[in-house]
Amino acid sequence: MNDTFEQFRLSGKLPSPSGVGMRILKLTQSDDFSTEEIGQAIMADSALTGRLLKLANSAQSGSVRQITTVAEATTRLGISTVRNLALGLSLISENRAGSCDAFDYDRYWATSLARAVAAQVLATQMRVGVPAEMYILGLLSEVGLLALASVYPERFSEHIPDVKGGSPADIAALERKLFEIDHHTVAACMLEEWGLPENFQGAVKKYEYLELGPRAELSSQIEILRAADLLAEMLIADEFTTAARWRSFDKEMRWLAQASELEDEAFFALCRSIVGEWREWGQVLHIPTQKPADFENLEEEAVKAERRGLDETAPRPRHKLEEDPTGKANVVEPEAAGDGGGTHILIVDDDPLSLKVLERHLVRAGYRISTAKDGNEALEVVLHSSPQMVIADWMMPGMNGIELCSALRRIESGRKIYFLLVTGENEDENVVRAFDAGVDDYLHKPLNPKILLARVKGGKRIIDLQRQVEKDQQVQRRHVAELQLLTRKLRTAALTDALTGLPNRRYAMRRLSQVWESTQRTGNPLSIIMIDIDHFKSVNDEHGHDAGDVVLKETAKAMRDAMREEEDICRIGGEEFLIICVNTDQDGARIAAERIRKRIESNLIKWGKFHRPVTLSLGISQKIDGMETYDELLKESDQAVYLAKASGRNQVRSIDEIPMSERQTG
Amino acid sequence: MSRDEQRENAPILDLDVIASLRELGGEDDPGLLLELVGLFLTDAPTYVSEIVTGFEGSDLARVQRASHTLKSSSANMGAMGLSGLARTIEGVAKTADMELLRELQGELQAVYQETAEALSGLQQ
């Protein structure tokens, strides 16, 4: 793994999936996870479950039946796809906002979401790859940018103007200068770390460099991703997009239409379906989207841009996309920086007037606000967009504020929410009941704006602290996971021969002892084959140790290829190997030994001036009654090897061919 | 001064509240005040008629709920007279003094009318 990335990781500032995503990641990194465990981890988060099922249904093509449970999604899409979806989706909820002032988080996610949807739709249409996987690839392909902004918020902000309008190669070069790593490499490392498919890494490293042209194709993952990226850029284009860029969109869209092998009308219909899904997903994930330009008349947009006389050097103002007005929970973006820092608050009141006044006060202080008019609607908003704070009126028809609070405290995503209850004047007695229900603080009506903002600020401090603690815990969890991984690697290393990758002598002796014990009980046959490479010393002497190493490696590999399941091969000395054949008698072992001998004698090894196959001397022994330890078995096979050598090498001999009187004992 | 006297003396419209709402909209949202007036004129009549219907059907819980909402909604608009009256009604509904309640709900119509007229004045 990349060293710079390693440092990033240790900083603990890299974007990472939220609790559930992290748990799933950990589960799938261990050796023995079960599909059920993953399913359970996902279902613990109801918002994630809903989104996952939506994706599972939209990503499966050609099937009529709705997927309604996580278990079903797992069966249909496969556990690894479900896992990747859960990871990707939980990454969004955890990184909707961040510490880099100049990084436009909304715009970033709106673009990523458009790319994800476009990749999925194009993959389905063109029958390339697995659509759900393409969704994840599209969603995460630029995650390196998010990471750079998270690790170096200030430096990233300072240099954003420098990259404006640069080619992908220029931008990557600048990033390498500033951060010693570019966002493509960061993204590839993150995807690797999260265990996403290996081919993703290559795709995210290269796709931005892929030139679109009149002969563009849509026949591979990377081409689909590149096309999806273009569509995403176009969907997000706005009045700050230059006339030149609109014209190139126009041209590139034509190339894409051609590549899709669709008639223009059908291609535009496909694009419209991408827009529809994008906006729908935006609503589900509470990512603001916009009505895109009419992509059938891009020239018109170019003309409009010219008329605006755009100053290309002017900085783009912070992104402001409206959320779909049909969305039940209307998220209002902060307009001015204040105390709020983008903290997401859900306010609940049945009186529209009170709701409006409260919303206005909080938006002005820089909070991100969702509203709901009763308890049930509030629950829905919590499930879909996980606000960090809820301010609810006590008296509401249906579910009142206290009932809403206890309902929230019973679900995973509601437990951490800071809950502020708004009460009437003379209800101090009831306030005790409110705290019992899990309320964090309360406010009297009529609301005094100053006191309101002070109380909310206090709540925000607690939320921020809690978040910090969670981040720390996440870092710790990651360190523990790393340590476990390292321990596992070390354990494997201690039993592996570094040069050939075969199990080493320690393993061989341990294994032989185990097998010996079990055959003592079962009485099953046990044979071993001792192997020596012929004239190996002269290889080292004449061609050097490097050639010797190559011979060892190639021979080991060829032997392993010729091996059967019940045969265990280890390197137990310089040019010495041992095969343990369980449940095999001497005749069976001889057949195996012959197979290996022939394989090696015809296996040409080329390295420098060394240019020939090597040969083996192989000696067989079998466990017989009266043998007390496996040492005797080893000694006998050694003698058989000696016989093979003495008889001219490149042959298989067994202990039986040596008269009893000539055998060495003890 | 008793609560009732406070209520009698409460202004129909607290102009300080109106000014602060105007200020809350500021330059970003100059239409906020009128929007809020519009919301009030739409919703408050519903609360008033809820109170009346509740009283007529002897559904005191309904009277309590509606007067509670009217109390805070009108306080938000600076309609202190209406808010105070709503608070009194909420309290009386708890004691189930039907005679007093009859009197108060008669008064409610009049105070609401007066408030609505004052607020409509802002719209011109």
Q: Can you characterise this structure?
A:
The complex is a heterodimer of chains A (666) and B (124). Chain A is of the alpha/beta class and 666 residues long. In chain A, 57% of the residues lie in helices and 9% in strands. Chain A is built from 27 helices and twelve strands. In chain A, strands 2-1-3-4-5 form a five-stranded parallel sheet, sandwiched between helices. Chain A has a five-stranded mixed sheet with strand order 7-8-6-11-12, with helices on both faces. Chain A has a two-stranded antiparallel ribbon with strand order 9-10. In chain A, strand 3, helix 20 (401-409) and strand 4 (418-423) form a beta-alpha-beta unit. The radius of gyration of chain A is 33 Å and the shape is elongated. In chain A, 42% of the residues are buried. Chain B has 124 residues and is mainly α. Helix content of chain B is 82%, strand content 0%. Chain B contains six helices and no strands. Chain B has helices at residues 3-9, 15-25, 32-56, 60-76, 80-95, 98-123. In chain B, helix 4 (60-76) packs antiparallel against helix 5. The longest helix of chain B has 26 residues, at 98-123. Chain A binds chain B through residues 335, 350-354, 356-357, 360-361, 364, 393, 395, 397, 424, 445-447, 449, and chain B through 20-21, 24-26, 28-29, 32, 35-36, 39-40, 42-43, 65, 68-69, 71-73, 75-77, 83.
Order of helices and strands of chain B: HHHHHH
Secondary-structure-derived class of chain B: mainly alpha
Q: Termini distance of chain A?
A: 51 Å
Strand content of chain B: under 5%
> Overall mean pLDDT score of chain A?
84
Mean pLDDT of chain B, rounded to whole units?
88
Overall spatial form of chain B? elongated
Quaternary structure: heterodimer
Stretches of chain A where pLDDT is under 50 for at least 5 consecutive residues are: 319-337
Query: What is the number of beta strands of chain B?
Result: 0
